[in-house]
Design a protein that fits this description.
CATH architecture of one domain: Sandwich
Radius of gyration: 31 Å
Number of strands: 31
CATH topology of one domain: Chondroitinase Ac, Chain A, domain 3
Largest sheet: 7 strands, antiparallel
Oligomer: single chain
Shape: globular
Number of helices: 22
Distance between the termini: 53 Å
């Protein structure tokens, strides 16, 4: 593109301002639009060139020098930053993020990978429009700030956090077609062969708008994907295109849910609508593929679950689906002594790698918009919109969460909107030690039930030292360093000490009838009329039967925990209970009965070992509840002393060997789960439960996979056979392990 335009005439009106501003010369070094004016005042037009004149193709070619899709000034390669420029020039017109990216690239990415090609922007319209050209430059620079005193800025909270955050991708395809995927997502566009005529091209753009239209979130409808923007450059098409999206929900398998609700796609040629419901789509579990025939240069699509009507006992469309909630923890690119972490809940399963935060406050004042990086993410099943309690706890004694920020709530109404919900948590460093990365715990509690989810997040490193980087570009390019962490930074967690005592119960139930079963079921209680049953809370367990939904309480009778039908008992208070001797239970018996199903579940030892060793941060606490309180560091081999995870793994291996030596009396997985419950690792137990149940189900039902695929997944015989073809052996049979997975 011919962008060598003389802008000097345009800037003549600003000369008067430049003469009265003492900071004009310094300001011009970081702003190409005033740089030419300051240079002309010094009669040095030929010596100092605007970045626009020096790099006229910056917008269209920057992405080809990086293995990233971003093309802002602070995402450029070091060669693009330092080539053919003086030392003074390098230090005065590049932002702090530029130099941090240079350090990262040289330290941790010395060998570049093959970059992805993107379509150059069409900038013909900017040649004769100064304002449009200026807006384009500012758009690419977006939030980047240039800094004069780099060393001073490195100690300022919030430094080097502003970068361009384009959540989109553009690809150029020929008549052979292809697929375009939005990075870090399950959103794809499939362009079939013959979509355009031979010799023609199609530029396909894909973008995710995180907050979907609010009109699709109500009692009868709920969005399960972001608002997706599609762009096409060529409308002279011969074949339709296909949009494929993995959504955050699945319709339940019961007949009522299947009849009352469905996953649908809404389409519009404008962002504001109106949207129309598309008919040409195919749904498989949580993935929907939509055929788009009525195309335009810009199109918008959103996926939602829609109910025809709400039939009691359902209260909204959430009651007909299994809804997955995705959360992300965002923070600055580098940590400093005081920083903010942002907990974000999404109404879909797309969690972007960068997020612009506009409501950060410092000293009671609003900060400029800041781009935060994704530090960690988690997904969990939420059957209906409920109030959530979020708490963050530092696992490192050198850091703490501000007292008023340790626990925050997210309301049910906020989840129903389908939009992003954010909560901010302020971390601060204690004492004057050297700053370092650390681990903190994120815990999510559903307030109306006992559901608890937790996961750990590791912060990034503090900012690298950048003093002297400006004057030593050659030495910087040749330097190679290995990223390492100090050994003293192993996170420590204070686990509770388990106490075996009688459980305090506030609610009881009196049996209204006698229930004895000929076929004994472990998780169902048997009782006589008049028995007093202790209830572990008033929450009800819903089970879908053949004709209706049954509700159960979790009760205790004769030291056994099980389910009792709600209609078979009368709920009374603790004061009304007459004889409660048969309904007492200790905390030890409680955790042992909770773990009872693990005696019959299948597991993979290596997976369990790695999961536990990565998630438990105190080997002594685990050893004590497993009965190895006598163990000391002298019992470990030298290879197990350095890392806490290796010590935890050594304790687990020791217990595995002891259980294997006494197979008749001891069961490894059962005893491990009991121990984890005693030190309150509920999130870890939930993860192991999910893994073992899936594996056990696969092993038990592997040989019936054809029937399951046909009835549950609704696959046709042709689809089943097509899946089997690449997995058949020489005798034409499919191996068992293939069927399991």
């Amino acid at each position: 593109l011919d962008l060598d335009i003389d802008w000097s005439a345009v800037f003549k009106h600003a000369h008067a301002v430049s003469k009265t501003n003492p900071f004009w010369n310094e300001l011009s070094a970081s702003n190409p639009f005033v740089h030419d004016i300051a240079a002309s005042n010094r009669n040095e037009n030929n010596k100092y060139l605007s970045i626009l004149k020096e790099k006229p193709y910056l917008f269209s070619k920057a992405s080809s020098n990086r293995d990233s899709l971003a093309s802002s000034g602070d995402e450029l390669d070091i060669d693009c930053l330092l080539r053919k420029t003086s030392a003074r020039r390098s230090g005065r017109s590049k932002s702090i993020s530029d130099f941090l990216d240079i350090v990262d690239n040289q330290r941790f990415n010395p060998r570049k990978t093959t970059p992805q090609k993107t379509v150059p922007s069409d900038m013909t319209c900017l040649q004769n429009d100064r304002e449009a050209y200026k807006r384009a430059w500012l758009s690419h620079r977006q939030l980047t700030r240039s800094c004069l005193d780099l060393e001073a800025m490195s100690h300022s909270p919030g430094w080097a956090q502003t970068q361009a955050t384009d959540i989109h991708v553009i690809c150029k395809l020929n008549h052979e077609g292809g697929s375009v995927q939005l990075p870090d997502s399950d959103i794809n566009i499939h362009i079939p062969a013959g979509h355009v005529s031979p010799g023609e091209f199609q530029e396909v753009g894909l973008k995710a708008i995180l907050n979907p239209p609010s009109s699709f979130n109500n009692e009868l409808s709920s969005t399960v994907s972001p608002l997706i923007e599609l762009t096409l450059s060529n409308l002279n098409t011969r074949e339709a295109i296909f949009l494929e999206v993995k959504v955050a929900a699945k319709v339940k398998n019961d007949p009522l849910s299947q009849v009352m609700s469905d996953i649908v796609c809404f389409f519009s040629l404008t962002k504001e609508g109106p949207f129309k419901k598309l008919e040409n789509f195919y749904t498989y579990q949580d993935t929907i593929q939509v055929k788009l025939t009525d195309v335009g240069h810009v199109m918008y699509a959103v996926i939602a679950v829609q109910a025809s009507k709400i039939q009691p006992p359902a209260t909204n469309v959430w009651d007909y689906i299994h809804r997955t909630v995705s959360v992300g923890i965002y923070g600055p690119k580098y940590i400093h002594p005081s920083f903010t972490a942002v907990f974000t809940v999404f109404g879909h399963n797309y969690i972007p790698g960068k997020l612009t935060i506009c409501d950060i406050k410092k000293g009671g004042k609003n900060m400029p918009p800041i781009v935060f990086q994704l530090w960690g993410k988690h997904t969990f099943l939420l059957e209906k919109p409920q109030d959530l309690n979020i708490s963050l706890v530092s696992c490192d004694p050198d850091f703490e969460v501000k007292m008023e920020d340790q626990s925050k709530n997210i309301k049910e109404e906020e989840l129903k909107t389908g939009e992003m919900v954010r909560q901010q948590f302020l971390f601060s460093m204690l004492g004057c030690r050297d700053i370092h990365f650390f681990v903190f715990l994120v815990q999510i509690k559903v307030l109306k039930s006992s559901q608890v989810m937790q996961f750990h997040v590791t912060t990034p490193d503090p900012a690298p030292k950048i003093s002297g980087i400006i004057n030593r570009p050659k030495r910087l390019q040749n330097r190679k360093e290995i990223k390492s962490a100090p050994l003293l930074l192993i996170p420590t967690v204070k686990y509770p000490k388990f106490q075996d005592k009688t459980l305090s119960v506030n609610t009881y139930g009196v049996a209204l009838k006698t229930v004895l079963r000929q076929n004994k079921i472990d998780y169902l209680l048997e009782y006589f009329k008049g028995d007093t049953i202790a209830l572990l809370g008033e929450d009800k367990v819903k089970a879908v039967g053949q004709t209706k939904i049954k509700e159960w309480y979790v009760g205790v009778l004769r030291r056994k925990i099980g389910l009792v039908h709600c209609k078979n008992i009368k709920v009374i208070s603790k004061e009304q209970a007459m004889d409660t001797a048969d309904s007492e239970i200790t905390t030890k018996s409680l955790v042992e009965q909770i773990a009872m199903p693990f005696k019959k579940l299948t597991y993979i030892y290596s997976v369990v070992l790695s999961t536990v060793s990565e998630s438990v941060y105190d080997w002594r606490a685990l050893a004590e509840v497993l009965g190895y309180s006598h163990m000391s560091l002298d019992d470990f081999n030298e290879a197990h002393v350095d890392k806490e995870s290796e010590r935890v793994a050594h304790v687990v291996k020791k217990m595995k060997e002891d259980c294997h030596a006494n197979k008749k009396k001891r069961l490894f997985l059962y005893e491990l789960i009991v121990a984890l419950l005693k030190i309150d690792c509920q999130g870890l137990v939930a993860r192991l439960t999910q893994d073992t149940i899936i594996l056990t189900s696969a092993v038990k039902l592997g040989k019936y996979w054809r029937e399951l695929a046909e009835k549950l997944a609704r696959l046709t015989k042709q689809q089943i056979e097509a899946y089997e073809v690449p997995h058949r052996g020489k005798n034409g049979a499919v191996a068992l392990e293939v069927r399991l997975w």
